[in-house]
Amino acid sequence: MTIDRAAADKLLTTTRSVRKRLDLTRPVEPELIQECLEIAMQAPTGTNAQNWSFMVITDQAKRSAIADFYRQGTAIMSGSGYPPPLEDGDPREHVMPKVMESAGYLGEILDQVPVFVLALVKGRVENVPMLIAQASTYGSILPAAWSFMLAARARGLGTAWTTIHLFFETQVAELLGIPADWTQAVLFPVAYYTGDDFKPAHRLAPEQMIHWDSWGDHH
Ligand SMILES: Cc1cc2nc3c(=O)[nH]c(=O)nc-3n(C[C@H](O)[C@H](O)[C@H](O)COP(=O)(O)O)c2cc1C
């Protein structure tokens, strides 16, 4: 079968972080989550290690506890200087307040999002001094995580890539019984999205980001 390129490009360019358009009233079928995760596990891993795990969290008490950690994380982050303030004239200056507001809003409704998916990888970057091992650790879960978002979007499910709860990674590990040698990479709240379409995002100018043969050489 040839790939329907228009459909593939549409999926790749319109898979957004969905926060305000999550349908909090519609349950998500467990089979759909299972399907998305099986697709996600077609992603590459370093040395084909497949050292990934995915926790699907539907239990209300656990979701509420994680949502609470997310909110506490948001509060810590806003006073932490991370991410560093944008320089004057940074083209992201206008969208950043919206992103932060939207990420904060997600915290407010997080308890009500019906499913959380937590993607994990075996290993801890702080224990491996070699850059290649660090790259392999995160590099063996992030492609699968993005595939999960794409597969979800193709099924009418909205997700947002989130990491704010990681201020409390240890506490979340304890809550869910995660062994100490596993790293939590990303937490996805998952729900059906409302409305039927998303737009490609405005991104920084690609010509400044793409270098041909020598750093700074742009086509
Ligand atoms: C590594 C990483 C961490 C992120 N953490 C959060 C988060 O904790 N909360 C949140 O609401 N969004 C989070 N995001 C989503 C970004 O804010 C979002 O991808 C960005 O603003 C671009 O918007 P788009 O995904 O709709 O294109 C994260 C994204 C990435 C890649």
UniProtKB/TrEMBL annotation:
CDD domains: Nitro_FMN_reductase (cd02062). Keywords: Oxidoreductase. One of its GO terms (molecular function) is oxidoreductase activity. SUPFAM superfamilies: FMN-dependent nitroreductase-like. Signal peptide: none annotated. PANTHER family: NAD(P)H NITROREDUCTASE YDGI-RELATED, NADH DEHYDROGENASE_NAD(P)H NITROREDUCTASE XCC3605-RELATED. This is Unannotated protein. It comes from freshwater metagenome.
